[in-house]
């Protein structure tokens, strides 16, 4: 896409690969010279140093032209310190599912894209409601921990850990072979694996993104939920900790409720 540069003086080209190795906050907004949009754009600008400190770059997108972006900055909006992209073909908005086709404008969609270019978080607001950069920073910090973060989690707080007591550990030592079918980015898969690791249980992980035999297994069973945890002859679909604990021989009193 063509974009107005961060300093507001030049027209440049931007593409997703330009941000490889960094986090990207990609946020869409409806139109220049409107009411809610400038409050959002300036709010993100005011927090841009906090985003940079977190290793993230900002990129805003609307269907206006770069000339309109520049005119807006020079006539009221002011400099932002990050690029403003112009999706005049509407292709990028459509690809991210934020295009209002009849109006030819974008919804308030926001995407956090990790250094490997994977979308890790997405949210779409009603166009009457502006977004909060501090909430985006909170979510970014949570994603960067790589762990489980409870509702209302704040930077510096501990992650959740699957519940396993020292008393359970000896019981787990003699369990049947464990196999777990997973996909990259599956948070429930990570939770079950962490539970097994903390219990000292060895397991075989089948990455369904690469393993054809694993894909065939899922298809033959008609399974769609993840993870699929196989303990002996029992196949447990999804994040069902009570069943997983029962299959491992744990007492009902210690099951996750």
Automatic annotation (TrEMBL):
Entry superkingdom: Bacteria
One term of GO molecular function: thioredoxin peroxidase activity
Swiss-Prot/TrEMBL keywords: Antioxidant, Oxidoreductase, Peroxidase, Redox-active center
Naturally occurring in which organism (per UniProt): Flavonifractor plautii ATCC 29863
Family assignment from sequence similarity: Belongs to the peroxiredoxin family. AhpC/Prx1 subfamily.
Name of the protein described by the UniProt record: Antioxidant, AhpC/TSA family
InterPro entries xref list: AhpC/TSA (IPR000866), Glutaredoxin (IPR002109), Peroxiredoxin (IPR050217), Thioredoxin-like_sf (IPR036249), Thioredoxin_domain (IPR013766)
Pfam family, one: AhpC-TSA
Domain Thioredoxin per the UniProt entry, residue ranges: 1-145
GO BP: cell redox homeostasis; cellular response to stress; hydrogen peroxide catabolic process; response to oxidative stress
GO cellular component terms, semicolon-separated: cytosol
């Amino acid at each position: 896409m063509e974009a107005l540069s961060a300093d507001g003086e030049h027209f440049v080209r931007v593409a997703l690969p330009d941000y490889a190795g960094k986090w990207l906050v990609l946020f869409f907004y409806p139109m220049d010279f409107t009411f809610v949009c400038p409050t959002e754009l300036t709010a993100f600008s005011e927090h841009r140093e906090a985003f940079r400190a977190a290793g993230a770059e900002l990129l805003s997108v609307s269907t206006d032209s770069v000339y309109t972006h520049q005119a807006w900055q020079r006539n009221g909006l002011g400099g932002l310190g990050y690029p403003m992209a112009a999706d005049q073909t509407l292709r990028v908005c459509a690809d991210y599912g934020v295009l209002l086709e009849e109006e030819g404008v974008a919804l308030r969609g926001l995407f956090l894209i990790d250094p490997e270019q994977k979308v890790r978080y997405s949210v779409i607001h009603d166009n009457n409601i502006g977004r909060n950069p501090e909430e985006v920073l909170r979510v970014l910090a949570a994603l960067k921990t790589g762990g489980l973060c409870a509702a209302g989690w704040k930077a510096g707080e501990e992650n959740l850990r699957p519940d396993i007591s020292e008393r359970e550990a000896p019981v787990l030592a003699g369990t049947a072979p464990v196999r777990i079918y997973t996909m990259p980015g599956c948070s429930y898969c990570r939770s079950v694996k962490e539970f097994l690791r903390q219990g000292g249980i060895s397991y075989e992980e089948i990455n369904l993104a690469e393993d054809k035999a694993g894909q065939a297994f899922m298809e033959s069973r008609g399974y769609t939920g993840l993870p699929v945890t196989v303990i002996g002859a029992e196949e447990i679909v999804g994040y069902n900790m009570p069943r997983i604990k029962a299959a491992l021989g744990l007492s009902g009193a210690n099951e996750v409720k």
